[in-house]
Amino acid sequence: MATGIQQSLSIALQELLGRFYSSQTNNEEKKAIELQLQQLQASSFNWLTCLDYMNAIENSYLWFFAATTIERTVNCMWKHLSGTERTLLRVRLLELFVNYPPDVPAMHRDKVAKIMATIARQQCISNERNYEEFVKQALDIMQHKFFLGMALVAAIGDSVTSAENTQATNFTNVVNRHTPSIVQALSKHCGMFVILVRDEKPTDSMGDEMRNKYCSQLLNIVQQYFSWMKLDQVDGTMLINITFIACSWSMLHDGAIGAVGALTELLYRNESLTQEAGRELAHGVYNIIGQETIKMSDDLYQEKVSDLVRQYIKRGWPYEQGDRSSMLHQLLEFTIHTKTPQLLMEKINIWTYVCGSRNGEDTDNEQCLVGTDLSPEFTKKLMGFLFEMLFFRTHPDLEQLDDDELDENSETELNRYLNQHIDLICQLIRFLDARMQEQAMLMLLEDHHSSPFVQGNVFFRGIIETVQGNSQLLDRYQDERVAQACMIDYITACNLLIEWGTMVYGKYPAIDYALQQTTLAQIHFFCELCDMLDHIIAMCTRMAPRNRYIYPAFARMILQLNLFMQITPSAQSIGDPAYVSRSLRDIVTHEQKLLLFTKLCGVLMQQNSAEPAVWTRVINAAIKLFNLYLSEELLGSKMTSRLIFDQLKGSVMCSKFLHLEPATRSEVYRTVCGCLLTLNDECVANMVNFSPSHALEEYIAFIASTLVKFTPDQWEHLHVEQQKQLIATLTDEMQHLNHIMSYYASQPGIMRSRLMSAMYGVIGQVLVLFRSTLAVATWATNDALSDRLLDTLLEFCNHSATLQSRLHLRLLEDIVQLLKELFVMEEKLGKHRLRSALTLLNTFQPLVNDPYSRTLVPKIIRVVIDELLPVVACYEHYTEKDESLRYEDVLNRLYDLLNDILLHHWQYFVDTTVHVRYAPKARVIIQPETFLTIMNAYGYTLLNNAEYPLVIGTVLSSLDTLHDRRSLYWLQLFTDQLLDHFMKSLLQLAVSNVGNMLMDQIIKMLHDMAVVDATKLKVTICDLNMTHDLNIFHELQSATDLPSFRMVMTKIINEAKAQPPVSKGFPF
């Protein structure tokens, strides 16, 4: 460092900065260091010192501290500097900047340029001529020292985009008046790079790398200016130069990418170019996409070009000059020569806009969906390419796509690729004539050589024949990669077939017939597979590496049958108005449907050694088809449930399905319950001595057999391992019941009522079990099994209360009592889980709001006041920091519940008899202790939960609503004991950061309190030392209406913020 700065100061500063940026320094120490640095900035290391020695500082931390000191002076202290100081600051920075060598660190150069641009903006406020001088200096520097001039021009653009809202418009207008000269200079330098590219032997002193770097920086600046400047200032010559650079990717790679980005930026603007510039922009897009060598460019360049073309088409082909078809052919060639599947997705996205697809990005803007008519032959060529790129067998590079990690839409990269291609194919179909559509569909359904759908069926046929002793057909799939590609392609082809068939079914008789025959053949084939399922699974187990692809394909076959059954005619036939097609489900005979369902039951009952996670996909597909039978009454109106019941009662309803994973098992149970619930709606005259309700009760008791049969006295006779097994079994059975209850909680009332009646006995027995002599504490150990049991029990209580809320009050009382015991037990064990607290609150809230449960409210209030409130209101009780729930959400739910208790059960707290109803001051508090507890909790929250603004907002809204609807502030108890405390807390809240967000509500509440007792408010303001201005107090006294009161209180609060009030301590 230069000798002018004391060596000791330099060392001290470097030591402080080194500690400040060290990862070993904690936050408290960093705050202390920050205060020391601020003191130095205001004393020995001020901006004048920094200016003197900026060029001599070598330590990077110290240099940026010096630059920040100067920047802070310009941003925060500019108004306090004298004219001489301002001039000195501007001149010295300019001298420092223009003397920088070419190899100066870019961060140093750009930082000084930013400060200079900020000074120019500050000066512009007082005199616009100063800014004109600054622009001229920047352009002059750019002429002689290109790298420095570019930094200044870039800083000018940054100063526009970073201007504060209050200054942005005026300042942007000033800069726009000088923009033509800046743009002219930028265009001139773009032209210089064009000359360098055209010159085979450049005469400049820059090497290829430096030339590319400077060109890229120049085009990035151009793009930035295009993002905010008036576009009528863009001239056609500049766009010609930019287009030329954009096509020069082989020589100026980074510059070409910047040029493409600059042109794209023009298309993002919702503003028009001049006619000349627009014409050159359109020519530029055509020229870039039409380069003969573009197919040899790298992926990054092609990705940027794709973005340019996509944006051009989204804008509706603006400034179009000539035949659009030529560009479409160029785009097709550009698409066909794509090297990677990731890049192909970018290009396919362009075609979605060409076709007017609503699956593209930014579909909210209808102007994007431009749609373009494509000739059938052109469409056929594009679809042929898409078919080739869609399947592994013809496009092995699909292996590059990730098939594990999910994106924000729960899709893997591979799924996104496949879905995008299928969507585009379905959009392109409408451009084919009838003959081409029929040919394409028949090729997918019947071509034994090229159809992945047919090949998948051949693979399964090979499995059947191998089981029968003939392995010839399956031999071709001995290679694992071939088998894998066959199965994945089969699933993809099934997806395409369903999407395509749904669109065109009913339009073309030939396609309809092909789909009908395919559906019937698939049903027959599936039944044939099911007949040999044991042998097939045994064989697949021996083919271990391949079975993880076979089972998903088998699951897709079941799902395909489900989707076939849902296809209905989409429109009137094209070409034969008299032709009317039937839904595919109507093509299938009753006998075939019944046979298919019988085979589904066999799949559900199938016990095998397949990997559970893989086999689950098969079961889930079967359950979906099962549910379709019920929801669509596939076996006939008023008889489907009975026929299904006949199939279930022999085997399915007697099985616990222990071979399935618990979640899948729950889904099977829920589906069987659905059949029994709908059985009530069908005629059961022929079902002698049969009651669907009784059958449902028995089935639910069967699901929960351990819960029902276990008695507390058996516990002590079990060994430790048996106790653990019992806990796991009880937990699983409750989870199954939870799944059933949660599903039907949102179903129509009749279904809910039937389930409610059927569940009554089981719920009662569960409550007896967990409130028995064993007590809840017996189950509550610190192991994972017990935690899972208690979590499931909490969920069970919540669902049970929701289900039984309008029927059985005795059950509800037992649920409330059990939840209380559970919560108290956890406190005794030293555990305060957010989950149990939230379950209590979620269970209580609907009961409190339901008039039917009003007799339960006193018990609920006691639990909330005595147990929940003291624990939940204090975060330090919650020692488990890894909870998935946020404490703020639970606390907010607590105050929501307290608000509902007060609002809907006001008569529990306050005398509401007729003779006091219209005399607010005469009302008597019936439960003063409980009422004061809730009010004190409100006051505590306002003062102690500044980090939870959501909770504070809930408390304020509750107080405000209670006063508007129940005249809360007029209660004698509130006026005498609480009013002044709430005034203090509201005023203190108003001057805090949280108060800024809630200011309107705070002032309204203070106004309502002032109406009750204005003197108390004035005394409180004085007590808090919020203002010394007597005139404000006079204004406050005369401010009776809310607008006037708000104006005066705003003055008081602003003065208090400038001079913080003294905290007096509050008694909440």
UniProtKB/TrEMBL annotation:
It is found in: Cytoplasm; Nucleus. GO terms for molecular function: nuclear export signal receptor activity. The keyword Protein transport applies. GO terms for biological process: protein export from nucleus. SUPFAM superfamilies: ARM repeat (SSF48371). Belongs to the exportin family. This is Importin N-terminal domain-containing protein. It comes from Anopheles minimus.
